Amino acid sequence: MSDADLEQVPTYLDDKTRLDHLKTRALITSTQIRKARLAQLQQQQAEGGSGSGGGEGGEEEQRRQQEAEARRTILNQILLPEAADRLGRIRLVKESRAVDVENRLIMLARTGQIRQKVTEEQLRELLNAMAGQQEEKKIVVSRRKGGWDIDDDDDDDGGGGRDGL
Fold it and tell me: What's the predicted TM-score (pTM) here?
């Protein structure tokens, strides 16, 4: 039976037979789809040589590039050139600090807290505020230089050692 014959299901057949014809047509169609998909995958592997693993890495790299481009676009919209230059200099010195500042600026822009472009002075104020928060998080541990002396406990009680003899 050809595909043209299957498309023309006879109307004189009872419902069960018509249903069987439709199922057969669907089965043939799904089989053809599977074969076409398999041929397409084999062709992609032959052309790419790396298989499906290389495609996933390319997609991930493309996604990262799109995110980076979106970040640059947002920052260009909210920073004056002088502030952008300062942020670039910060990035040269300490990448993590620049990323933290960028994240804060993007968050402020998305929540509508930035109504005009950020000046260099405003960027400095933000940096100082973030530095103050980071200093509060630091834990300072002070250690004794001489260490502990075993006799330190005995000095307060006034006796019991060789001193009393």
Answer: 0.47
